[in-house]
Amino acid sequence: MKNPLDDWIELTREWLDEQMAEQRARDEAAWLRFRAALLGPLD
Q: Which domain of life is it from (predicted)?
C-alpha cells in the first residue's frame, strides 16, 4: 500500500532523473564546444 511519502519519493526520483538527463546534455554540448575550440570542428 502506497502512502504519501512513497508518492513524494517517486516524484522526487522522476524529477531528479530529468535534472540529471538535462545536465548530461549540457555537459555533452559543452564538451563538444570545448573540443571544437581546441582541435577544430568534427569531421
A: Bacteria
Distances (CA, A) of 2 to 5, 6, 9, 17, 20: 8, 6, 11, 21, 26
The alpha helices in the chain, defined as continuous H runs, are: 4-39
| Tens-place pLDDT, residues 5-21 | 999 999 999 999 999 99
Between CA 17 and CA 30 the distance in angstroms is 20
Residue type, position 40, single letter: G
C-alpha cell read off for 2: 502506497
Whole-model pTM above 0.90? no
